[in-house]
Design brief:
Blueprint (H helix, E strand, L loop, with lengths): L10 H21 L5 H4 L3 H15 L17 H6 L1 H14 L6 H14 L7 H13 L5 H14 L5 H18 L8 H26 L8 H24 L3 H12 L18 H20 L7 H4 L2 H7 L8 H15 L29 H22 L6 H18 L2 H20 L6 H22 L2 H17 L5 H4 L21 H9 L26 H14 L17 H8 L4 H18 L2 H24 L1 E3 L7 E5 L8 E2 L12
Antiparallel strand pairs: 1-2, 2-3
Helix pairs in contact: 1-5, 3-5, 3-6, 6-8, 7-9, 8-9, 8-10, 9-11, 10-11, 10-13, 11-13, 12-13, 13-16, 16-18, 17-18, 17-19, 18-20, 19-20, 20-21, 21-23
């Protein structure tokens, strides 16, 4: 007559027996307050009987409260007449009396009950139970429950996707409640466990795809893939919710933690094992991690940009490894927008368009601080390069151009002084030139998309800096395009069934933004416009040389050719240095040349990255003069062959006399210089 799980055939008698049993348990729980039973009731052998009995009766509730807030408290009448409500009330009392030492003993039987009765899928009852647990225990013990959920997730890591998704959703509910109070030392543990299971889910998904592609088609493969996506979305949602409720100092640590897990070239710090994922799995895990990072960075506000985008975070974020796919590039830009938009202007810039009056947007901005200026001097070229190369990708869609436009606009609002404005205009003109010349063989839609992006940005920046002559030039070009080449404007090119031109070579220059006109207009307003005449060239990185992306490799080769003679080297022979047989033999010997070339390239890249712009420009000019002098020397050079195979070779020119070179047994045919 005290069996809380009674299955008597008479419903009324069954209810009475269950109520009597639950009241007996409730009496035992209340007696523990001032009784010696307090120490023994929490032992596992007792909890394994008490907790499942209560849960068994709680399952009979027909409508489970699934709201975010705490479950509603039962009325006095329900407590007396309904076994399910009485069991829930007793369960609350039991958890409310739990202490640090016995909390886990009360929670673990819940997992066993849910596993045994397969209540993770669907998981409404599981969510209901853990809401009761989280709201009933003392707040300082919340992290114990979270640790138990994480441990159970690890134990069930090979279960069906929907079971794992059910556990993760329970974790989300627990974290949502714990985040309002104290979550203790489990912050990194939560993220580390979730990221580990994210990798496992992607690995399972990749294995299923490989298994389904061999032999007969598995009809369950698509269903399994969709189930794994449910797991991945649940993980990302949990990471995002948890991260967005952390204080800023902890959130910045989590941002670095997640970024350190993203597989990118040249970093060995990430601890996610991707050896079994393959290219498709690696791309998938990159997307999942960036989506997690996007949710964590949402709403993050830093006083200075260097706090939000330190070098250790920015370098892997802008890595070419994360530019191989249009979706990856979108996520990278969106993460950057979250961290860069400190005055909530992004919503006003949504969509790429020609804005008639930027003042109507009521853009919020502050004076650029010294730290932000320093950040742009150090990292500006890196940002420009990412935007420049991102515009020239063949798989870009409209959203990519919209995000690139927003990036340029946010840099202008948040980080632009006069020097940065000039650099951004140089970047825009370089993009226009690349679309016209089309060295990358982009489709016509992408070329027109770049032209539209440039038009939208120059219209925005001209109004932001409010230089009348500059605004007039931009407005005139846009007006001519509206009448003669509407496909160069965002409102038309991104519209369905837009007519595209067959080529861009025959267009009049009135359709383009001209550097000399812009320089003239800005120079009249006090801007330093000397650098506008120097074409923008993207910054070089070490990863470019190993990248499969043709456009980057070509750019690197061009830059190394241009700058190679600007690097001082001890191996360079001066005009008056003695040329000996050993020197010639050493020059012919190719051993070690690879290392020397590698070091030489490194010096070139480092010089290009760190040297001031004025210094590089001056050296390019000096190189041009040097080439002119060298050409004059070559034209005057004469070579007199030796009279015999063992003679000497004498080299003379109009500017220098070299010492004779012993040739010993080297044989020379008649030499001619053309």
């Amino acid at each position: 007559w005290l069996n809380p799980r009674s299955c008597h055939s008479d419903p009324e008698i069954r209810t009475e027996i269950r109520i009597a049993g639950i009241r007996g348990i409730q009496g035992v729980v209340r007696k523990t307050v001032n009784d010696e039973l307090r120490a023994t009731i929490w032992e596992p052998q007792h909890m394994d009987k008490i907790v499942p009995s209560l849960l068994f009766n709680m399952q009979k509730i027909e409508e489970v409260d699934s709201r975010i807030g705490p479950p509603s408290s039962p009325s006095a009448t329900d407590k007396e007449e309904n076994p399910a409500v009485l069991a829930e009330n007793c369960f609350r009392e039991l958890l409310g009396r739990a202490t640090f030492g016995n909390m886990n003993n009360a929670v673990r039987p819940v997992f066993a009950h849910l596993d045994h009765h397969k209540l993770w899928d669907p998981n409404e009852f599981a969510v209901h139970c853990f809401k009761i647990i989280m709201y009933s225990i003392q707040a300082q013990y919340s992290h114990h429950v979270i640790q138990e959920i994480l441990g159970h997730l690890d134990a069930r890591k090979k279960d069906a996707p929907r079971v794992r998704a059910g556990i993760i959703q329970v974790l989300l509910e627990a974290v949502a409640i714990a985040a309002k109070g104290s979550i203790g030392p489990t912050v990194l543990e939560v993220f580390n466990t979730l990221l580990k299971h994210l990798r496992l889910s992607v690995e399972f998904e990749a294995n299923d795809l490989q298994g389904g592609s061999v032999g007969s088609v598995n009809l369950n493969t698509s269903s399994k893939d969709n189930d794994e996506k449910i797991v991945q979305n649940a993980i990302i949602q949990t990471i995002g919710f948890f991260g967005s409720n952390l204080p800023d100092y902890q959130r910045s640590e989590i941002m670095m933690f997640i970024m350190g897990k993203v597989p990118v070239f040249g970093t060995s710090t990430h601890t996610l094992d991707i050896s079994q994922l393959g290219d498709l799995g690696t791309r998938r895990i990159q997307i999942m991690l960036l989506r997690s990072l996007l949710m964590v960075t949402s709403g993050y506000k830093a006083k200075t940009i260097v706090t939000a985008l330190p070098g250790s975070f920015l370098d892997p974020l802008l890595s070419p490894s994360l530019m191989e796919d249009y979706e990856l590039r979108q996520l990278v830009l969106e993460v950057m927008h979250n961290l860069m938009d400190r005055h909530d202007n992004r919503a006003k810039l949504r969509g790429i368009r020609i804005i008639p009056d930027v003042a109507d947007l009521k853009i919020k901005r502050e004076k650029i601080c010294r730290q932000d200026t320093s950040f742009m001097k150090k990292n500006g070229q890196q940002l420009y390069r990412h935007i420049y190369l991102g515009c020239k990708e063949e798989d870009n869609v409209q959203k990519n151009y919209e995000l690139l436009y927003t990036s340029l606009a946010l840099i202008t609002i948040e980080l632009a002084n006069e020097e940065v404005v000039i650099d951004l205009i140089r970047l825009a003109i370089a993009l226009q030139d690349s679309a016209i010349i089309n060295e990358d063989n982009l489709p016509m839609f992408h070329r027109c998309g770049i032209m539209a992006l440039v038009a939208a940005y120059l219209n925005f920046v001209s109004q932001m800096i409010a230089v009348p002559a500059f605004c007039q030039h931009v407005s005139k070009v846009i007006e001519i395009r509206t009448m003669e080449a509407p496909y160069f404007l965002p409102e038309h090119i991104f519209r369905d069934k837009c007519m595209l031109p067959k080529s861009l070579e025959k267009h009049e220059k009135d359709l383009y933004f001209l550097t000399n006109k812009i320089a003239e207009s800005l120079g009249g307003s006090g801007y330093s416009v000397e650098r506008l005449s120097v074409p923008y060239v993207p910054q070089v990185t070490d990863e470019d040389r190993l990248s499969r992306r043709k456009s980057i490799v070509d750019t690197v080769s061009i830059q190394v050719d241009i700058l190679s003679n600007n690097v001082p080297s001890d191996d360079v022979v001066s005009n008056t240095e003695e040329i000996t047989f050993e020197a010639l033999k050493k020059a012919i010997d190719t051993s070690g040349m690879e290392e020397q070339e590698k070091e030489k390239r490194r010096l070139v890249i480092e010089k290009f990255q760190k040297a001031p712009f004025e210094e590089i420009a001056a050296q390019c000019e000096s190189k041009a003069n040097l080439l002119h002098d060298r050409l004059a020397q070559i034209l005057e050079l004469t070579i007199r062959p030796p009279p015999s195979p063992s003679g000497t070779l004498t080299i003379t020119s109009g500017h220098a006399q070299y010492q004779s070179v012993p040739v010993y047994e080297m044989k020379f045919p008649d030499l001619c210089v053309y």
